[in-house]
Amino acid sequence: MTRKHETPFFPPLSAGERKASILYDKDISGYVHSVETAGMVDGPGIRYVVFFSGCNLRCKYCHNPDTWKLRDGRLVTVGELIRDIKKYRSYLHFSGGGVTITGGEPLLQWDFLLELLKACRSLGIHTALDTAGYTPADVARETLPYTDLLMLDIKSINPAVYQDLTGGRLGPTLEVLRIAREIGLPVWIRYVLVPGLTDDEEDIQALAAYLRDFPNVEKIEVLPFHKLGEYKWAELGLTYELADVQPPTQAAVDRAREILSI
């Protein structure tokens, strides 16, 4: 089922727009929903996690629907974020951690993202980009070279399931994965196991087969579906279609992890 996006898929960038982002500008602004200063599940080590606002997908199991609308976030500059990140730089470094940028969909604000990545790199801070990869290829080619780790959410390898689940197309996500392979960027795959949607064993086998062609994929995480964010849908006046879906059994999770093991 194709669903109307509140935030439309954005068009490819012009040459002028690409050129304008090359130089680091600490005062470039973007919309941020929130930050977490001691994240433990969003990449290696202890992470300073930045949740960007705005998303161009509408995943049925989303636990952060409050990040969907771009301007519901707080407008901040890269400089403001970096000043705060520097406060935690020592324990990020000694834990083998860094900064994780997630959302929402971070690539929706690609220019803001690019300057934040450049700023972190200039300070020697490891960066991880947690994304669904739903972006034009030229945006990915601009931003991924400044990223140390790509955490790519592949909702389903089945195009029909992907569209029903997210309202979007699978192609852009797979193109981002291919670009990461071209530049040798380490990738962690994230796969949410949802009973009745993403637990079809043939689809999981197909994903495993597809990923075998990507030697830069270091880890595949199978994340059990949960409904911890269901209350947010109610608060926003949204219909949560998965209200009757229960989390997968441990046996189902173990089987998916066995199939996707690398």
* SSE sequence, one letter per element: HEEEHHEHEHEHHEHEHH
In whole angstroms, how far apart are the ends? 33 Å
Low-confidence stretches: 1-24
Tell me the fraction of residues in β-strands, as a range. 15-25%
- Numbering strands along the chain, what is their spatial order in the largest sheet? 3-1-2-4-5-6-7-8
Describe the overall structure.
This protein is α/β, with parallel strands linked by helices and 262 residues long. The chain is 34% helix and 19% strand. The protein has 10 helices and 8 strands. It has an 8-stranded mixed β-sheet with strand order 3-1-2-4-5-6-7-8. A hairpin with a 7-residue loop joins strand 1 and strand 2. The radius of gyration is 18 Å and the shape is globular. It starts with 14 loop residues before the first helix and ends with a helix.
Q: What is the structure about, briefly put?
A:
The protein has helices at 15-20, 78-86, 89-94, 110-122, 137-143, 159-166, 171-183, 201-211, 230-235, 250-260; strands at 29-39, 47-52, 74-77, 98-102, 127-131, 149-153, 187-193, 217-224. It has 262 residues and is an alpha/beta fold.
